[in-house]
Every structure is written in structure tokens, then in C-alpha cells.
Specification:
Elements lengths: L1 H24 L3 H4 L26 E7 L2 E6 L9 E8 L5 E9 L8 E7 L9 E5 L5 E3 L3 E3 L2 E8 L1 H9 L2 E6 L9 E6 L3 H8 L2
Antiparallel strand pairs: 1-2, 2-3, 3-4, 4-5, 5-9, 6-7, 6-10, 8-9, 10-11
């Protein structure tokens, strides 16, 4: 059926092109030379400001390590750009549900690293977040605040926990939806590239 339609379609397109060409040759010269109508002010595009990639405070991805991206901010000249190790977390259907950013702490005391975890607003806050590495005993973390972007947990990890991330194959993040308090949402945190990315974030 398709083979028999193609010649007819080609003939139709050629005929249409011929008609258009004939109409163009019949266009009066005065009409062809008529000036274009002036654009209304509402139709004018005023453009947008282009921010230089080297401007202070501009975010950029410095490097990717497996499933992690090293996200940085341009700092003033002579100052090291602050960077965080970032991963977007998806559910089983591939929907973006949460995100985690980790960064070393030079003088964090007991905390060798910090992390910012953002989850949807529809999360049951009283159930907090649970993180586990390779099926080990989970640790529970409270939420810090919520805004229009979601609910945020700012947590700290000891050096032993960071070493566990480096040795591990996979971690999980567990939360509970407010609309279904009897259910659990478990997201996988890939640890592929974590060691190289975390070491790079501290440089």
C-alpha cells in the first residue's frame, strides 16, 4: 500500500509546486515591491541579557563522575570555586523525585561532609528520611525546612559513613508520602563514580 501511495504523493507535491511557481510569476510588480507592514510594539522581542560564563556566581558542571556531576559556582578571581557532588534521583518509572548534593567539610568537627537533600512537598515530614548503604542499618534524618521547591534536609556524615559510601555499591533513600502514610517511597542512590567525584569536590 505504501509503495503505491508514494508516486501519487510525489506527483501531487510537484503539481502544487508548479502552481505556486505560476502564481508567483503572475504577481504584479507593484504588489511585489510593497513594503512589509510595520510590526506592532507587542510583537517586538526585546531579547534577554546574556550572562557571561565567567561571571561570579554563575553555576556550571565542572566534571561528571559516573552517575554524579560535580556542580560548581564561579568565585572571585584567586578564590577556589565551591563545588558539590550532585545526583538527581528517579523512581522506578523514571520520574525525577529527589536530589542530593554532597560536599566535604574542612572544619566540620564530627561531620566530615555535609549533604542537602530535596524531596517533594507532599512528603510526610514526621517520618523523616532514611538512608542506607548496601542494605546496612539505616540512619534517620529530620527535615530542616520547606519552600516552594520542596522540603529540604541538611544532614552531616561522619568520615566512617563517607568511607562506607566509597566502598558501597548502592544506597537507598526512603521517604513516606503524606497522602499515603502507610506506603514507602524508596529511591536508589547510585554510588558509581562517588569516590572520584567526592575527592574532586574537595580540590
Amino acid at each position: 500500500m505504501l509503495q503505491s501511495i508514494k508516486p501519487l504523493l510525489l506527483a501531487t507535491l510537484l503539481a502544487a509546486a508548479t502552481n505556486v511557481a505560476a502564481q508567483e510569476t503572475e504577481t504584479p510588480a507593484a504588489e511585489a515591491e510593497a513594503p512589509a507592514a510595520e510590526a506592532a510594539p507587542s510583537d517586538l522581542d526585546m531579547g534577554t541579557e546574556v550572562v557571561a560564563e565567567t561571571a561570579v556566581g554563575t553555576p556550571y558542571v565542572r566534571e561528571e563522575f559516573g552517575d554524579w556531576a560535580l556542580r560548581c559556582l564561579r568565585a572571585e578571581e584567586g578564590t577556589a570555586d565551591p563545588c558539590q557532588l550532585y545526583q538527581l534521583l528517579n523512581d522506578a518509572e523514571g520520574n525525577s523525585v529527589a536530589e542530593i548534593s554532597m560536599f566535604p567539610l574542612a572544619n566540620g568537627g564530627q561531620a566530615a561532609a555535609g549533604a542537602t537533600i530535596v524531596v517533594p512537598l507532599e512528603t510526610l515530614l514526621t517520618e523523616q528520611l532514611l538512608i542506607s548503604v548496601d542494605g546496612s542499618a539505616a540512619r534517620r534524618y529530620p527535615f530542616t525546612f520547606c519552600n516552594r521547591a520542596g522540603c529540604v534536609a541538611r544532614v552531616g556524615f561522619t568520615q566512617a559513613e563517607i568511607d562506607q559510601f566509597k566502598r558501597g555499591n548502592a544506597a537507598t533513600l526512603q521517604m513516606v508520602p503524606a497522602a499515603a502514610p502507610d506506603e514507602k517511597v524508596i529511591l536508589n542512590i547510585s554510588l558509581t563514580g562517588f569516590t572520584a567525584g567526592y575527592d574532586g569536590a574537595g580540590q
